[in-house]
Amino acid sequence: MLDVPARPHGDAAGEIDAEGWTPGVKEAFADRVLALAGRYAPNLPGSVLGRHIVAPDDLARVNRNCGPGDPFGGSHDLAQSYLFRPLPGQPSHRTRVPDLWMLGAATWPGHGVNGASGYIVARSLLS
């Protein structure tokens, strides 16, 4: 789940006593997400072997560009847009590591998660 409140204050369902992303709030929220997804994939909740929950403040702590918890590739200013993603000298999703490609929200075409970078890489690999 990518879109969550940066600083939760309460719970609209009245089930989680939320005042920030405490360990208990993270666990309760993850339980709710799995239960809701389980309505459509009934065996999902019982199939989870382990989990690691990253809240917005956790994300911001490990990457300043993602504060306060932006899951879509960090800053959206001009220096982080379009031709400059991921790095100006590293176009076409290729990396300097042979056969390692980079894709996702932080790559061309940038901003958000829409699958376009995966499509571009797949076309390159299949041609």
TrEMBL record:
According to UniProt, the name of this protein is Dehydrogenase
Highest taxon in the source lineage: Bacteria
Q: What is the lineage of its organism?
A: Bacteria, Bacillati, Actinomycetota, Actinomycetes, Pseudonocardiales
